[in-house]
Amino acid sequence: MGFRAIVGAIVPEASNLDEDGWNRLEQLVEAALAARPRRLQRQVWLLVRTIMWLPVLRHGRTFRSLDPVRRARFLSSLQEHPIQLVRKGFFGLRTLALLGYYGRPEAARAIGYAADPRGWEALG
Amino acid sequence: MKRSYDIVIVGSGAGGGTVAQGLSSLCRQGARIVVLEKGPKLRAEEFTGREWEMAQALYQDSGGFLTAEGTMTLAFGCTYGGSTAVYTGTSLLPPERILQRWNVPGLTLADVEQRARKFMDQNNVRLVEERFLNENNRLFVEGCRQLEYGVRQFPVNLKGCRGSSLCNLGCPNQAKQGTDQVQLPRAEREGVEVVTRADALRIGEKKLWARVSPKPPAAKGEPSPWEPGEYEIDAKVIVVCGGAVNSPALLLRSGLGRKLPKLGHGFTCHPAFIMVAEHRQPITNFWGHPKSFYLDQFVQSDHFVLETCMYFPFTTAKAVAGFGEEHSRWMRAFPRLQMILVLACDEANAHNRVTVDRDGRPVVHYRFTPRVVRGLIRGAITSAKIFFAARAVRAHLPLGRISMIESQDADRLDQIAEQAEFKPGKVPVSAAHLQGGCAMGSGPKDSVTDSFGRVHGVPWLFVADSSLFPNSLEINPYLTIMALADRSAEAIREQAHTLL
């Protein structure tokens, strides 16, 4: 559930997904991670857990319990962090969230993407 | 399992496909030649144009091979035809100043150009007819002309293009004349065997070890013609054409780094990012050929090239910096987005190189130099000028705290450039023009091969791909790779009586 909260902060539209939509999103992310080295997979899930619990130090509550403005502010602090390792960790997580959401053909259609293998013919 | 061939070619892209065709005439004299391709061969109907599905099927690491620093992803093909199955078919002749700078003994511009022109004919290279240009390309031309920039049209290798815009996901209409469509089928008709899903593990004295993988359940592509398992293949000649990441890695795994200190060095890649701008009206970028024009007048002064482009929803989402509502707003504007690809012209340096890890997997070390950062920033600002000259209402700048520029700020762009900050790990940089690692040169102290791709001190081992480039080509590399591979094939043919 922690990952879903992060995805929702990165792509606000994801909050409107039903359970099937979330399952498809998570399948894409899991398939992408499965092809990567175990070490990287462990790092991703460690980062998710860190993001969940780190706000407790500052706000006294977990990431999931923060309001949307504070969630965004916290993620921005990772994105702009002076340490490159933190920035690239967040970039990787952001990439997975965007893959899960926009990698689904229905999300592509929803934003008006209409490329077609038939090319000009499809325009009628 | 054991096999025996006269010639083994590793890789089937611009280099491997060209070498396969160039050597195929030897099959008539009884030579046995095999191409080992790590990726699968897809059936025509499997090219669906669906982004993630095709990225998984056609690219190494689904197009997201990460550098050791984790600050850039590399995109390169891993399929029958290699990266020629996933490029846009842009076919440029190598610039004279670059070949002069490479200064490889025995390599002349006239020779490379004559061979490149042969492949322009063979691959049906021509300019896209004006009536088939899409609005993204027209707006780029309009913006450049308003600014009096010297915009140029790409020659592309198309035959029967239907304008699907899906070049980078493998053409669903087989219109792009890559090695998968031209050179490999010709070589196979002459008797060259192509074995897909075959990963070259290591090279020994006139032999090579390879692993053939089974087709994963539900994966695209045909099964390998060879039974899955490990193979020891005797070969009189081996030609390595795995590209600028896999070729140096294979030679390093084979222990050649001890004799060749420059092996893996000199990696360049034209680091790139995508610029987008929003127009008031839809501009239907997703039909037509996506990459028809480019601007290279700033290569020598500011070290960047601009190209038109069209990317898919996930790739575009990754390229737009930030997250949350502002990011979503850009994505909802997708049908109104104009896109330009900014490529920095990097130079070989001591840090940027290919190594292998403990398990023998390739590792690419890459740091952005001040020259690259300057090229990307200047390229981004020039793109924004072009967007606004073409009447875009706002542009996305993936550099700095302010990521959105409104059209009323168009006259402040140079000031904005001064405030731009390039934070590796935040800026979405990727690269697809991977070069170097097995550079040509005069001897083992300064290079890996001679000008024919023959590895120094190993007369039966050749390299024939973009890893041969001693430094960045500063243009799209495919024709130059084919010309160099043609030289390697000719050298092998001419010495066939002693080598085979």
Note down, in words, how this protein is organized.
The complex is a heterodimer of chains A (124) and B (500). With 124 residues, chain A is an all-alpha fold. Chain A is 68% helix and 0% strand. Chain A has one domain (2-112). Chain A has helices at 2-10, 19-34, 38-59, 68-79, 84-102, 105-110. The model of chain A has no long low-confidence stretch (mean pLDDT 92). Chain B has 500 residues and is an alpha+beta fold. Chain B has two domains: 2-124 and 163-267 and 434-499, FAD/NAD(P)-binding domain; 130-155 and 272-345 and 369-423, Cholesterol Oxidase, domain 2 (2-Layer Sandwich). Chain B contains 14 helices and 21 strands. In chain B, strands 1, 2, 8, 9, 10, 11 and 21 form a seven-stranded mixed sheet that branches. In chain B, strands 6-13-14-15-12-18-19 form a seven-stranded antiparallel sheet. Chain B has a three-stranded mixed sheet with strand order 3-4-20, with no helix packed on it. In chain B, helix 4 (109-122) packs across helix 13, helix 5 (135-146) packs across helix 11 and helix 11 (370-389) packs antiparallel against helix 12. The longest helix of chain B is centred in the C-terminal third of the chain and has 20 residues, at 370-389. Chain B is globular and about 70 Å long. At the A-B interface, helix 2, helix 4, helix 5 and helix 6 of A face helix 2, helix 9 and helix 10 of B.
User: What is Rg of chain A?
Assistant: 17 Å
Taking all residues together, what is the mean pLDDT of chain B?
96
Please give the count of helices of chain A.
6
What's the structural domain tally of chain B?
2
Describe what is shown at a glance:
The complex is a heterodimer of chains A (124) and B (500). By secondary structure, chain A is mainly α. Chain A has 6 helices and no strands.
List descriptors.
heterodimer; A: about 120 residues; mainly alpha; globular; B: about 500 residues; Cholesterol Oxidase, domain 2; 7-stranded antiparallel β-sheet; 14 helices
